[in-house]
Amino acid sequence: MYGIMRKLLFRLPPETAHDLALTGLDMAGKLGLLKAFVTEPDPLPVRVMGLDFPNPVGLAAGLDKNADHLDALGALGFGFIEVGTVTPLAQPGNPRPRMFRLSGHQAIINRMGFNNHGLEHLLDRVDRRRYPGVLGINVGKNKVTPNEESESDYRKGIAAVYSRADYITVNVSSPNTPGLRDLQFGDSLKGLMQAIKDEQARGEKEHGRYVPLAVKIAPDMDEAGIRFVATALKESGLDGVIATNTTISRDAVAGHRHAGEAGGLSGRPVREPSTRVIQALYAELGDTLPIIGVGGITDGDSAAEKIRAGAKLVQIYTGFIYRGPALIRESVEAIRQLG
Prior knowledge:
By secondary structure, this protein is α/β, with parallel strands linked by helices. The protein has twelve helices and 13 strands. α7 runs parallel beside α8.
């Protein structure tokens, strides 16, 4: 069924298809049709960051930026859902077109630019949800906020979502906000981690609950960069790391008509770079800090590969667009086979 729908949707511009698919999913959910077409995976419970997940396969941030589709997405069998990236103020993102399919590679290039309706809208939608599962909220900084003032935006985001989120992700790795990736390195990263840990402590005191914090990093790091990040993570006391975001490399899609488009490349071409980062992080961190693996998961084997590399959970996004809900169950079953 999804294969037929995808053929129709892929005739439309990517962003139009994205919005139409989610609207259709919402309608199907309200009419009670999802259970007839979706077979949820059998439970495969796992405890990570002090949270209990019904299975280790989640939805990555970016697909539901504003938490507008939580109930419908939550009915598909995900072990957890991450919404956002949300910024303190609403912003339109980059001019269209800003999303491009590379179907032969099962890939997407996007330069969305943190387009979202802002914190107030997202919080309203989260408060209305019926989805009872694990919810992560991914926070970022506004484009107009200078890097030297970025701590303020991240503090605002964490403070606003703290009482609603089961975990919070700090996004410092999108290639589509100028200068954002600079926050992954040196004193910028250490200062930011200290700031967000301070905000976490403030939230715990105010709300009487500890909400884990994770940071999302890029796949375009050398070994020295990965070691630095791992050391900073251990020193800061963060609760998890998401590896990885999209890549700016075009090596795997060289020659494609969209290869020259600016933005982050996701999907199958990111499988190896993402897994390489996970392996390197795990070599430094071991089991002291959990890794959530994301990037290039298009089938069960690639999901299991992330777990073998050291991840405790995985997330899907582009593979979900190409494969549909069947990828969730297939990934869970492949991970189950690992024992």
